Amino acid sequence: MRGGPQVVVKPHRHEGVFIAKGKDDALVTLNLVPGESVYGEKRIAVDDADGKKEYRVWNPFRSKIAAAILGGVENIYIKPGLKVLYLGAASGTTVSHVSDILGPEGVCYAVEFSQRSGRDLINVAKKRTNIVTIIEDARYPNRYRMLVGMVDVLFADVAQPDQARILALNASTFLKNDGHFVISIKANCIDSTATPEAVFDREVRKLQQENFKPLEKITLEPYERDHAVVIGKYRPSKKQSKKEES
Ligand code: SAM
């Protein structure tokens, strides 16, 4: 789809994310592989003073990070040039947008244990050279430690009852001190008998016990029911926290 003169693309306050302003505003990322869609999403070509560019529409009903951004989250910490470890990559829908945000200087290590989703993910990564596909169980980070360096951000969307433990195992192996985590919590995957709020609170406490410092929690309505995203810092150093407070 051509953006035409009626579509203007502006940077979002989250670096690497953009808004296409037209009849309906849309969240978009700059396509790392122009001419290619990943999951049938619309592409918008824009020819402005900086030259020709192509953006991909980021659907908040298909991606929890997009839902959190549209929900007004303060900071997602996923930025151009960083290294991100992504647990629960599925077919690569959200991973592809993370790959756009990170750009050619960044790396997204994408872990998925389903062989079926993994096949789609491998195909996405064939064209996106900043994605390293890892078909493994995220409960065993030692199995992929030779493939992954230290990362700036750890994202988890595994929808498992023991996801806090999975996050902790991976953080202690790969996440820098003062690095950031983003975790998506699907309440009924953890406990379908408690209220979603009670489940979110319990998960936040588990994270605190594992040396994660939650900074922000956001629920994902109207895009996802009974889901929350919690974002924060890992092993915060006193020096760094003081610097940020001042
Ligand atoms: N993040 C994806 C997106 O936005 O496109 C959707 C992820 S889906 C909710 C959860 C995924 O986590 C599934 O594909 C599932 O196979 C994967 N998963 C669950 N447990 C896992 C584990 N222990 N190790 C690796 N992947 C896991």
User: Topology as H/E string?
Assistant: EEEEEHEHEHEEHEHHEEH
CATH class of the largest domain: Alpha Beta
Taking all Cα atoms into account, the compactness measure Rg is 18 Å
The main pleated sheet reads as: 7 strands, mixed
What does this structure look like?
There is one protein chain. By secondary structure, the protein is of the alpha/beta class. The chain has two domains: 50 residues, Phosphorylase Kinase, domain 1 (2-Layer Sandwich), CATH 3.30.200.20; 182 residues, Rossmann fold (3-Layer(aba) Sandwich), CATH 3.40.50.150. The protein has seven helices and twelve strands. It has a seven-stranded mixed β-sheet, with helices on both faces. Strand 9, helix 4 and strand 10 form a beta-alpha-beta unit. The chain is globular and about 50 Å long. The chain starts with 7 loop residues before the first strand and ends with a helix. The mean pLDDT is 94. The structure holds S-adenosylmethionine. S-adenosylmethionine binds next to helix 2 and strand 7.
